[in-house]
């Protein structure tokens, strides 16, 4: 179905589809559009597998599973978005564009198969503008072929990505004109105008394009006034899409009224109750329940997620439930902190605050231990577990986590900081100095807070070593680091006091040396 009921409709008699969307043999091509019946059961099985596989980091197979699931539920925009997320992660990990074999391996000769084949090639090169346009065009064709599907929304989504500039290279005039045509085909004249304006920026003296822009703007104006279609079917399509757009706006808006959220909760609950096995509907219900930021609604969300985890074995549902629980605990901690700040003499508030912090740490320790067990290759989880182990004073276990987490560029510097603190707390000063020095060498800048933190901790380790070993060499290294920090940011922590303390330490060590010399005479 065209997004606003304005796309071309296919009136030929549908042909029977090949089994599971297999391509027809050469020479059997038909001008008729194959019939299509969504299969939620098959789609659900493939998409659940896609989610599970994606969580393990096997992006290649996850992409295949998503495509197979979408073969049976092609207008599920949420899963198209999830597929793109996996595609981008694959790109970051060094995934290569499609090869000759991938290009030949079609997913069917029907419009949906062609769309998914285009999307597969795009997923393997997710910043390629040409492949985006191929996918958008194939989605438009599929939308026009199947009146009872909403594949125009998929085309619109791809077009939004194009206009958003999420491409490896800037678009050319012809690219924006192509996107403009596709937006027109699904009745989105507002976006067609935007695409045409992009083309005109690249050819400002093209009178033909300027004339086309005026026509598009007129179409947009009529559409906004609901005069775009004179037929009853068009009018009703506009009404249906207005309702759908309102739902999308409610679902996406970051700030909406309480009554609007309540309205959306009712709608999502009704949708879920119609098909409680549909995990996509469950996710949407959970999303809107947690937006209430109410313990009652959050408990409903947690119960739904735990049931989904038990039913499917997909650990991601347990993770989401844990995230909501941690959010609840953190909210309660903030409330208690405000009470303690307002009544600092109240011992009961202080005790409740202390007890809640302890329960928070215990829960998070258990939660991240379980996550690391289920996702053993995810270094970000090992970093999070390491932080909780450090807070609990379990320095040996924390060291093991941070030694692995430092291989992740995102947490490398912070892992070195925590490792240094762990070693210092255990009295392993040589190890602390080596690790912090390694962190300083690996950090790309010298004067941000992370760089200063690394140097401050190394300075402190040198001070401890100087005091323990009565070492002027360590004291001098501490002085140099303190001087560097002071010159970079005089207000960093207590650096002014530490500079004076190190000077006093050096004077004391010199005096001790003098006493030793005197005793030796």
Describe the structure.
This protein is mostly helical. It has helices at 40-56, 59-72, 77-92, 100-104, 111-123, 129-145, 152-163, 173-185, 189-202, 207-224, 232-252, 258-274, 279-290, 295-312, 315-342, 347-374, 379-391, 395-405, 412-426, 429-442, 449-469, 472-488, 495-520. The chain contains 23 helices and no strands. The chain starts with 39 loop residues before the first helix and ends with a helix. The longest helix has 28 residues, at 315-342. It has a domain at 19-233: Serine Threonine Protein Phosphatase 5, Tetratricopeptide repeat (Alpha Horseshoe). 73% of the residues lie in helices and 0% in strands.
Question: Which secondary structure elements does this structure contain, and how are they paired or packed?
Answer:
Layout: H1 40-56, H2 59-72, H3 77-92, H4 100-104, H5 111-123, H6 129-145, H7 152-163, H8 173-185, H9 189-202, H10 207-224, H11 232-252, H12 258-274, H13 279-290, H14 295-312, H15 315-342, H16 347-374, H17 379-391, H18 395-405, H19 412-426, H20 429-442, H21 449-469, H22 472-488, H23 495-520
């Amino acid at each position: 179905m065209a997004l606003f009921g304005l796309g071309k409709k296919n009136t030929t008699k549908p042909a029977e589809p090949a089994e599971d969307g297999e391509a027809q043999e050469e020479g059997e091509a038909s001008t008729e559009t194959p019939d299509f019946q969504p299969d939620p059961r098959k789609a659900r099985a493939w998409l659940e597998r896609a989610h599970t596989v994606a969580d393990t980091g096997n992006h290649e197979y996850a992409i295949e599973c998503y495509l197979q699931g979408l073969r049976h539920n092609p207008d599920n925009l949420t899963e198209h978005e999830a597929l793109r997320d996996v595609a981008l992660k694959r790109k970051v990990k060094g995934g290569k564009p499609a090869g000759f074999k991938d290009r030949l391996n079609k997913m069917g000769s029907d419009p949906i198969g062609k769309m998914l084949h285009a999307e597969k090639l795009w997923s393997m090169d997710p910043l390629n503008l040409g492949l985006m346009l191929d996918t958008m065009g194939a989605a438009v064709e599929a939308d026009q072929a199947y009146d009872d599907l909403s594949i125009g929304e998929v085309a619109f989504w791809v077009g939004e990505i194009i206009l958003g500039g999420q491409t490896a290279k800037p678009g050319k005039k012809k690219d924006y004109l192509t996107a403009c045509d596709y937006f027109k085909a699904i009745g989105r004249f507002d976006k067609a105008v935007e695409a045409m304006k992009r083309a005109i920026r690249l050819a400002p003296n093209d009178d033909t394009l300027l004339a086309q822009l005026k026509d598009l703007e007129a179409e947009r104006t009529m559409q906004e006034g609901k005069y775009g279609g004179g037929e009853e079917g068009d009018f009703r399509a506009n009404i249906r899409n207005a309702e759908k757009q309102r739902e999308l706006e409610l679902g996406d808006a970051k700030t909406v009224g309480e009554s609007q959220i309540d309205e959306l909760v009712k709608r999502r609950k009704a949708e879920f109750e119609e098909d409680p096995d549909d995990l996509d509907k469950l996710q949407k219900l959970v999303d809107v329940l947690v937006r209430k930021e109410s313990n009652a609604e959050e408990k409903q969300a947690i119960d739904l997620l735990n049931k989904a985890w038990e039913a499917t074995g997909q650990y991601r549902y347990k993770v989401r439930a844990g995230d909501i629980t941690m959010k609840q605990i953190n909210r309660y901690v903030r409330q208690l902190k405000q009470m303690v700040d307002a009544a600092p003499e109240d011992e009961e508030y202080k005790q409740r605050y202390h007890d809640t912090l302890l329960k928070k740490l215990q829960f998070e320790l258990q939660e991240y231990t379980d996550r690391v067990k289920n996702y053993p290759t995810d270094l970000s989880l090992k970093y999070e577990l390491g932080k909780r182990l450090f807070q609990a004073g379990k320095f040996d276990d924390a060291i093991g986590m941070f030694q692995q987490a430092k291989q992740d560029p995102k947490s490398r510097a912070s892992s070195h900081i925590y490792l240094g603190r762990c070693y210092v707390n255990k009295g392993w000063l040589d190890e602390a100095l080596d690790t912090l020095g390694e962190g300083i060498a690996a950090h790309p800048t010298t004067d941000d807070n992370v760089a200063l933190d690394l140097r401050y901790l190394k300075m402190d380790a040198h001070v401890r070593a100087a005091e323990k070993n009565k070492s002027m060499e360590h004291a001098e290294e501490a002085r140099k680091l303190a001087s560097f920090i002071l010159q970079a940011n005089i207000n960093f922590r207590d650096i002014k006091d530490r500079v004076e303390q190190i000077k006093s330490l050096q004077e004391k060590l010199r005096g001790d040396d003098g006493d030793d010399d005197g005793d030796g005479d």
